[in-house]
Every structure is written in C-alpha cells, then in structure tokens.
Amino acid sequence: MTKIKNICCIGAGYVGGPTMAVIAQKCPGIKVTVVDINAERIQQWQTDDLPIYEPGLLEVVKEARGRNLFFSTDIDKGIREAEMIFMSVNTPTKTYGVGKGRAADLKFVELSARKIAEVSTTDKIVVEKSTLPVRTAQSIKAILSEQTRDVKFQVLSNPEFLAEGTAINDLHAPDRVLIGGDQTPEGLAAIDALTEIYACWVHPEKIIQTRLWSSELSKLAANAFLAQRISSINSISALCEITGADVDEVAYAIGTDTRIGPKFLKASVGFGGSCFQKDILNLVYLCEYFGLPEVAAYWEQVVVMNDYQKRRFAQNIIQELFNTVSGKKICLLGWAFKKDTNDTRESAAIYVTDHLLNDLAQVSVYDPQVPTRAMYADMNYLQTRSAAENEQLLDVHKDPYEAAKGAHAIAVITEWDEFRTYDWQRIYDNMEKPAFLFDGRNLLDHKMLREIGFRVKAIGKGEE
Ligand code: NAD
Ligand code: UGA
Asked: Which residues does residue 180 pair with via DSSP β-bridges, in sequence order?
C-alpha cells in the first residue's frame, strides 16, 4: 500500500482550509500543503487573521502551521511533491449555457485535473473532496489519462460532510468518513491509503468504503435529505401560523419518534448556505438529464418551498406594517446564513432585504461577523438595482443598538447567541411605535418581548 508522506490540497476555502488543518494536526508525519490561485486568501491563511471565521480553527492551524501545514500559491510544486492530491475547489451552480441555474459548474474541477495531468511526474491518488455530480470521476479519469508521461492515477471520492460554524468539531468527531473508489486492486489500495490517514483519529467503524458512484451520489443525497427536512418543517410552519399551532411544539412532538429524530427540524426564515440549494439543483438537473422528470420535480419542490418561506417572511413584515414599508426603517439582526460563520452565501438575509428594498424600505443591518463590503456585494450580485441605490437604501452598523434606533421593526434573520443577551427594553425605547419584532429563528423570549411592548410575530407561531 502507498504510504502517504505528502498531501497537496487544491483550494484553500471553507472546506480545503479546515480539513487540511485537521489532517495536519492529527497526522504530524504527513506534510500537508494547501494551494490556491487566490493569493490574498493564501496570504491570510499565513496570518492569525484567517480568511474564514470558524470556532476553534485558529488553534488547530497554529498547532500545525509551519510544522507540517503549509499554504502556498505554487500549485505546480504542491502537486509535483504530493502522492495524494485533494481537489477542494468550488463547484457553484452554472450561471451560463447548458444547465444554467441548475447544473454544477465543473470548470474549476476540470482545470485542477488538467493541471495535475500537466505537471505530475510521479503516480498520484487524486481525491474528490468537492461535492460533485455522480460520475464526475469518469471525466477526471479521462483528463488524467491524456498525460504523456507514464504516470498512473487513482481517483477517489471522499465527500466532506462538515457544516460551517461547527467545522472543527465535525472534522474531529465525524459521524462517518466516506471513501469511494474503483473496486480494482489499485483502487482498493488507494482507498486503504486514504483510510489509513483518517484512521489516525477516526474509529475504523466510522470509515465507510464504497464504490465511486455511490460515494459521489451519497453526498448529493445527504444534503438533499437534510434540506428536505427543513423545507418540510417550514411548510408546516405556514400552517401553524394560520391554525394557531406552535411549530416548535410540533417539531418536538414528531422528532421524539426515533424513526424521525429531532435534528434539522428547526423552522426558520429559510435555509441558506453555499450548498443545499446548489446541490439539490444539481440533483434535479441530473435526474432530468437521466430522464427522470418525476424524481427531479420531487426534489425541486424542496427549493421551491425554501424560496416561498423567504418571500413569505418578507411579505409578512410588509403586511403587518400596515401594508407599507416605504421610507420605514427595518432593522435586520444577522446577515450570515447561520450563526458562528461569516459566510453569507445564499443567506436568507439577502432575499428578505431584496423584497423589502423593492417596497422602498430603509434596511439597517447588524451582524457580528460579516464585513460591510460582503453585504453590499451580496446585494449588488442580485442586480435588482444599482450599487448606488443599494448604498442609499441599505445601512450597515457596527452596533446593534444603533442599527435598531428609530426602526419600525426588527427582523431576526440569523440565530446568533448574542441577540438573546441584548437590553431589549433599551432597544424598544429607541424604536418607532408600534414596535414590531419578526423572529425568523424563534430565538428570543417572546413573552418578555411582549411584556416590554413589542408586537411579536414569529415563524410558525399562530395566535392562540
Ligand atoms: P470556497 O469557494 O470557499 O473555496 C474554493 C477555493 O478553490 C477558492 O479559494 C478558489 O480560489 C480555489 N480554486 C478554484 N479553482 C482553483 C484552481 N484551479 N486552482 C487552485 N485553486 C482554485 O468553496 P468551499 O466552500 O470550500 O467548497 C468547496 C467544495 O466543497 C464545493 O464543492 C462545496 O460544495 C463542497 N462543500 C462545502 C462545504 C461548506 O461548508 N462550505 C461543506 C461540504 C462540502
Ligand atoms: C450543510 C450540511 O449540514 C453539511 O453536512 C454539508 O457538508 C454542507 O451543508 C455542505 O455540503 O456544504 P451548512 O450549510 O454549513 O452544512 O450548515 P447547516 O447547519 O446544514 O445549515 C444550513 C442552513 O439550514 C442554514 O441556513 C441553517 O440556519 C438552516 N437550518 C438548519 C434550518 O433552518 N433549520 C434547521 O433545523 C437546520
């Protein structure tokens, strides 16, 4: 079996950075080099001001960096020196051409494969860490087989299941590690080589070995199942609001059935993040491509329901504020797609803001981690209105009390713990009356807020 001494990871993002930092931490005998075309990102990984915010990450990086963990823009050298190469590049939804708006854009994966083929002079195990459509390994193998030197490649699928905000915990104690490969002697040896790395800290029973296609598909299926649970409970939240039921009580009641389980049943303003929507749309595209329209329609409904939930939340705000928010200040608490991350990709905040700005509201935002420029970039990316208009209608504050001052309503978008600890009386005193609070996460103490004087509306909480 190949003994791995040198690993290279292409892509120093939310997955490449933390996963490689943990491998380096747990396997001090292996040199791990993370490479990226983005020089600024690489430079940040070399400082204590890391490019991503993730609890516990800096400690792990500091333990291994300079010892056996390195960040570099020298991609060729990184590839050449490694026996195992992880591809951890982004695979966003295509914004052009065939499959636009649905299929995964595999441009960066293909470029990485071509680079590996171009510069490799020794045999390599190439590991798909990015989330990819089932059978992508076939294309990667085809590209790698075109190189002219006598270099042999094995392609493995090793999807990542970490969630942002809990990445280090998830990596230290994963529910499982999935490794798919060819069922040939060389393929099985490659699977074993990667298994040996994870076995440095993961119990062997938690390391699942499968065929290539099963592994690739399991990642898309896992995200689709998780997102489906959120859309299911969100669909019920709409019914709760009309009938007077309480969605948290319903979620608890159904989640105590061990066959259903309690996780991922928290109703919200809608799921965000870089992956759920992208991966489901990719699954939908694959089903259509393979002639399974009914299966495609089934999964697409998860995204349709999520869009409905975000829109419904914004429309509720407008309706409650006497059907007009024009010129009214609405304060959004939270912009990140979930707590404990600075990632805003596909955050519900973006779409709620867009709806409110369409109705000419003045939106003010506070988020403990998201930089101001990221918020404007998110809004400008939508191209609903000009950058100048976004700047005029959207105000970003470094202090939550300032953000809420003079507002007609507050909308809680992200479930940051600190929101619970605020002086809500002080916030109320400085707001326009009647003061509304729309809790998109059911995070706050609604009884206390009502006693202060807030008119509280919460996801999935009907009038009794
Ligand atoms: P990301 O955008 O944060 O990072 C990707 C990095 O790859 C970027 O820094 C980019 O510059 C770099 N890159 C792109 N093309 C390159 C090339 N040719 N050479 C060198 N570097 C290149 O993306 P991410 O969030 O880390 O996601 C990566 C993959 O992992 C995606 O397929 C995603 O679906 C999957 N995934 C993400 C998460 C998550 O929580 N973010 C979890 C599990 C799986
Ligand atoms: C998700 C999966 O949980 C990971 O296993 C997977 O690796 C990852 O996608 C990926 O492939 O990128 P992530 O998006 O980082 O991880 O975060 P989640 O905790 O899954 O939350 C996603 C969204 O759903 C957030 O907006 C969150 O607030 C929302 N959510 C989550 C709910 O609205 N209700 C819930 O009960 C749980």
From this structure: 157, 210
Q: Which of 431, 372, 424, 418 is nearest to 398 (CA)?
A: 372
Q: Distance of alpha carbon 153 from its chain centroid, rounded?
A: 30
pTM above 0.70, yes or no: yes
Cβ(310) – ligand 2 distance below 6 Å: no
User: How far is the centre of ligand 1, averaged over its atoms, from the C-alpha of 36 (Å)?
Assistant: 10
Calpha distance 123→79 (Å, rounded) = 11
pLDDT tens digits in sequence order for the chain, 464 residues long: 568 999 999 999 999 999 999 999 999 999 999 999 999 999 999 999 999 989 999 999 999 999 999 999 999 999 999 999 999 999 999 999 999 999 999 999 999 999 999 999 999 999 999 999 999 999 999 999 987 788 999 999 999 999 999 999 999 999 999 999 999 999 999 999 999 999 999 999 999 999 999 999 999 999 999 999 999 999 999 999 999 999 999 999 999 999 999 999 999 999 999 999 999 999 999 999 999 999 999 999 999 999 999 999 999 999 999 999 999 999 999 999 999 999 999 999 999 999 999 999 999 999 999 999 999 999 999 999 999 999 999 999 999 999 999 999 999 999 999 999 999 999 999 999 999 999 999 999 999 999 999 999 999 998 76
Torsions phi, psi for 330 (to 5 deg) = -115, 125
Would you call 275 a catalytic residue per the annotation? yes
Which residue has the CA at smallest separation from atom 16 of ligand 2? 163
